[in-house]
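Protocol step 4 of 6: structure prediction from sequence.
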Amino acid sequence: LSDRADASYAALLKYADDLAGASARLPALLQEARNVGDLTSIAYVLAHLVHIEAWTGNLDGAERIAAEHLVLATQGSLRGQGAQARYNLAYVFAHRGRLDEARSMLVELRDDPATDTWDRHRSHGALGFVALSTGDPSTAIEHLDEWDTMLREMHFGEPGYSRWHLDRLCALVGVGRIDDAIRHLDQLLTF
């Protein structure tokens, strides 16, 4: 199911900020995956639902879904989904202000030798957000510069896929790298 066009379309709607459109499609996909016991697809849908709940301000729902995702990925020995689930739970913790827990989970994920480039990249972005949330733009920019470098190396230009662009802009301004901030903003305006 997670490889089907309708599942990819629902995810693309999320990335394009059509949260209503994604929300209209993902629950049916989740139910279908549950009905056939497709653990990978259940995890896939849960991973996307976490972000929709968080982005619409329902952090309780986001945390509940992230916790379910982590349990499913762990019990099902879904290694890639396990990393995604750990990232998602840390993401929710960061947005709830549970910054120490988020930082600890993100550092563990980033430093895990089994973590792939994509998850390491996202960990740097979220660690930048955590540092900005504590008023530390110097630490934030270290993470966000690494996030940006990795993003470019992976050739992901679409801002919807990895949403730390504005945090990087704030961190650049926060450390006085105004010329870099202007270049970063100019790049965002070309998307």
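Step 5 (inspection) to follow. The radius of gyration is 17 Å.
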